[in-house]
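[job 0412] stage=complex_fold ligand=iron/sulfur cluster status=START
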Amino acid sequence: MDFTSSFRDPKIVANLIQKIKKTITRPWVIMEICGGQTHAIMHYGLDQLLPPEIELVHGPGCPVCVTSLELVDKALAIAAHPDVIFTSYGDMLRVPGSKDDLFNLRARGASIQVVYSPLDAVQIAQANPDRQVVFFAIGFETTAPANLAALAQARALNLDNFTLLVSHVCVPPAMHAILGSPNNRVQGFLAAGHVCAVMGFWEYHPIAELYKIPITVTGFEPVDLLNGILLTLQALEKGEAAVQNAYPRVVTEHGNIHAQQLISTYFEPCDRNWRGIGMIPMSGWALRPEFSRFDAEKRFKVEHIQTHESEICISGQILQGIKKPNQCPAFGTICTPQNPLGATMVSSEGACAAYYRYARK
Ligand code: SF4
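[job 0412] stage=complex_fold status=DONE, emitting structure tokens
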């Protein structure tokens, strides 16, 4: 199977668009959960091919965007420590904290390194035994296994200078928060294919039943996305609260059991603050107490951080599907990728960055 070009085939795309047009009888609001899906939709112009009755709204599935301001400020406090080498994926460096960002802190001399894998951070810890190396472990269910594989590697190497600043969040509690809100507009979900590759989609059946909405596991190529939209639309038109899998070449009902075992070995569920959205109970993962020596928040004692969020930024409403980026008065004026006021304008998965890049003004 060709995993790229056949999923971008213009003939198949045109055929799916025709099927969608024939199926739809009334307006529907569908949320793609993942920021990667948002960018793919904008990149391929799929939103402009769909009939106007389908409104796509953009969900909270961008890990950089939802990492709480408090944790960004904690990252800044830890990275400023002279004994620390702070490591992170590149997107996090431009995310605004209350007063600063990691990029500016690095320009002022802090030791902050961009890595492409958490295992790079382990290597840095090995090479610098006299320094504390901290990895900013952000992400959804997708990245948790890789981050924890790095922790397992650090344990195997007996490294006592490696810690994680953990900001892991989980999709199902966020879906509950969106659907349970009095402002909710979402009538169907495209679930994030890579999250489901790890966790499966068994967790979505009770959500679909409770809120009477269809949920379709969806991939990232144009054919994947349109197929996910078509299956969701067919369920909406029939009034079915179906959970369907439009990404079977990657996702199974129960996901990757080995990855889930790694997660449950090291993590336990915790309440977590989502930037712009607020506290969602039991929506995150934290290191289990027996692994607290690998917890950067504990090692560096940064519990009491005062935060200050931009009063202009409406990214919380965007991440819940209530507003679109181009409805923000700051969009493209005082907020741009070069001068972001919110994390959704920074990340390569952020909805504001997608609207800016692909000119949805
Ligand atoms: S355009 Fe900027 S200020 Fe407005 S919601 Fe997006 S990130 Fe926030």
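The longest strand covers residues 278-287.
[job 0412] exit 0
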